Amino acid sequence: MITASTTESKLQLGAPSRPGYEACTGCRVCVLPCPVWITTRDNALTLQGRAISLKNGAALTEVAASVDACVLCGACEPVCPEGIDTVGMTLDLRLALHQDLEESTGRGYGGPANPLVARARSLIDAWTPASNNHHSAKPLLLVGPGYDDRTDLIDLIACLLGNGEPISVAGDDGRDLSWAREAGIPLQPKRVETFLGGLNGRSEVVLADGLLLRELKIWRPKISAVSLGEALLRRKDVRSRLRSTDLLIIESRAYHAGGRRCTRFYTKLRESSGCETNLDLQRTAMATGWTALNGPTAKGSTLNQNDQLTWIMRQSKPQRIVVESIADLQAFENFEEAAEIEVLHLAQIGETSQ
After folding, report:
1. Is the C or the N end of the chain the one with fewer CB within 10 Å?
2. Would the pLDDT of 301 be above 80?
3. CB-CB contact of 258 with 274 (8 Å)
């Protein structure tokens, strides 16, 4: 697998103790839940397609389109019988592509011809992290992108997680690191150290960004990190308000980063509430694709997100759609087939339920 050994950085970027593409047997189990495969039916754009290509000697540049097409939902990871770190492999391939082209051409993978990297750079340049103020033993909320113009929702989430006494909201939520990692832009060690330093002393960190949650567990495994969706659903006053007629859209990146623990948690939740979820029979979360950098607002995306929403909704006829992700909230609010259905963020269901 392409891991931190391919870079000069001292950061641990992947999970080198787990097998990489060389372990792929071509079984195609990972293809079944893949949203890119479901939309395109192009095997070259799947994890299995690029893994076998690399195993058979393909150059990095030959699988660049496949690497970029991935939305990093993580659905392939729990079903892989070989235990391949599928998300880490794709992230490291993007980083290796960037560095390989930079060395050979002097302009890097992040040139204007790559919309994924170009968008990441524009987002990073437009955002300036603030200080996380002071160290505290209380939980810290990292809201991530999408919530900036929804201060009402941020305040509601902070109050819910703090039992009425709002928890701290991070000024530096690390979104630039997540964008850079997703696009294959090399991380600056000093920037990572600054971000991690702002988390010192916290008893718990709650993250809305599922990809950053995955990375944080690698960078600082001793920090108690939990997804926003799970943190809210741990509260009885939130999960008790889920209805049997609801469709709960679990944020796939965070869900798959949680492994078997999340599988057990959401399976029990589904059984106790009676609600439908975007979990399939294998207990993988079907991704909408809207949280990805190469999603609907980026040029060159291979994934039709509206097709994904339609596919997810086929399993039920909900009276209400409840989402964990702000990106999915916006997606379903603008989805024509859900025009007559109430769509709420998980934090909002307490305000509308009796």
Report:
1. C
2. no
3. no
Count other Cβ atoms within 10 Å, centred on residue 261: 9
Phi, psi of 346 (to 5 degrees): -55, -35
Write out pLDDT tens, residues 305-321: 888 898 888 878 899 99
| 8 Å CB contact between 15 and 90 | no
pTM of the predicted protein model:
0.89
Q: Which two tokens stand for residue 125?
A: 């340049």
| Helices 86-105 & 175-183 angle (0-180, nearest 10) | 70
E strands, 64-204, in order: 140-142, 168-169
Separation between Cα atoms, residue 139 and residue 148, nearest integer Å: 20
Rounded CA-CA distance 256/76 in Å is: 9
Beta strand 342-345 with 276-277 is: unpaired
State the pLDDT at residue 103.
Answer: 67
pLDDT band at 326; cut points 50, 70, 90: very high
Query: Measured on CA atoms in the order 27, 29, 30, 31, is the torsion positive or negative?
Result: positive
CB atoms within 10 A of CB 181: 24
Q: What is the pLDDT of residues 139-160, one digit of tens each?
A: 899 999 999 999 999 999 999 9
Give the largest CA-CA distance in the chain.
62
Nearest partner of 308 among 265, 281, 278, 284, judged by Cα: 278
The total of other beta-carbon atoms located within 10 Å of residue 27's CB is 12
Place of tokens 């955002």: 127
CA distance 288 to 328: 7
Q: State phi, psi for 226 to the nearest 5 degrees.
A: -140, 150
Query: In this structure, are strands 246-249 and 168-169 parallel, antiparallel, or unpaired?
Result: unpaired
129 secondary structure, DSSP code:
P
- Alpha-carbon separation of residue 66 from 178, 185, 244, 328 (angstroms): 20, 17, 39, 24
> Rounded to 10 degrees, what is the CA torsion of 90, 93, 95, 101?
-150
What is the C-alpha separation between 249 and 197, in angstroms, rounded?
Answer: 33
Q: Cα–Cα distances in Å, from 226 out to 108, 165, 209, 262, 344?
A: 35, 19, 10, 10, 21
Distance between CA atoms of residues 56 and 53, nearest Å: 5
